[in-house]
Amino acid sequence: MSSQQNPAPETAETAATEGPRPRRLTYAAVLAALEGAALAAGGLWVLVRGVTGEPDDRQQAVTLGITLIVLALLPLLAARGLLLRRGWSRGPAVITQLMALPVAYSLLQADSMAIPAGIALAAIAIAALVLLVNGETTRALGIKGPGRAE
């Protein structure tokens, strides 16, 4: 008695994950992870300062710290999804970059040491957006454009 093995039908997701991951996709994931790590570190710093220090408003500092830590989950999950070539991950990654641009602009309007941070954030957000909308990245994630559904 011989058993036959039927190969699984190829889907868009399995086709997208074949071959090496494009460097652009890896770079986009790294940038998203860096933003997530920075948000988490900033949230942790604000939270610790709010609990141990003497902020103007302890409750506001704790709330801000927790909010930043929770917001860090979006780019971190997106980065993981990009590394694993999940098509859904591009949306949260793009949203994160679009949210970073107004923050960078407000940092650039400050008359302080926040200006270099605003420049860095704007550069990272723009670079990540360019990488995320690149055709090679889109194909690697198995995303088809409008009117190209197969």
Description:
The chain has 150 residues and is mainly alpha-helical. It has one domain (22-138). 70% of the residues lie in helices and 0% in strands. It has seven helices and no strands. The chain starts with 11 loop residues before the first helix and ends in a 10-residue tail after the last helix.
Classify the secondary structure makeup into a structural class.
Answer: mainly alpha
> What is the averaged pLDDT score?
87
How far apart the termini lie comes to 38 Å
Give the helix level as a range of percent: over 70%
| Domain module count | 1
Task: Characterize the main sheet.
Answer: none
Shape field:
elongated
Order of helices and strands: HHHHHHH
Give unreliable regions as ranges. 7-15
**Number of H- or I-type helical stretches:** 7
The radius of gyration is 20 Å
Provide the β-strand percentage band. Answer: under 5%
Question: Which tags fit this structure?
Answer:
150 residues; single chain; elongated; mainly alpha; 70% helix
Strand and helix layout:
Blueprint: H1 12-16, H2 23-52, H3 58-71, H4 73-83, H5 90-108, H6 114-133, H7 135-140
Task: Describe what is shown at a glance.
The chain is mainly α. The protein has helices at residues 12-16, 23-52, 58-71, 73-83, 90-108, 114-133, 135-140.
